[in-house]
Amino acid sequence: METLTHGAVLARFGHALSDPTRARLLLALREAPGYPAELADLLGVSRQKLSNHLACLRGCGLVVAVPEGRRSRYELADARLRHALGDLLGLVLAVDPAACPDSAEKGCC
Questions:
Q1: Which positions make up the signal peptide (predicted)?
Q2: What is the mean pLDDT of residues 23-33?
């Protein structure tokens, strides 16, 4: 496995958080491990879309699949991610709406 620089690690984390569904998925897994069907229902997305998001998060090294018989349970890859996500949620940011619109389609954020 390739060792990433700090910048590359943060870029991967940023990519994972850049999609609202992936961000919600990480927050759900922050609360407790879950199974794909249950997570899809919780997030209100199709199982196929959830599978694609889980694949992205696995590729970014943020979640792992834990085999349980014929099913797989998903959880955060490292317990420190739970703490990191909590720290991010605790931040209060001053956002200039003109510079960072709410819609990812409009610009940087």
A1: none
A2: 97
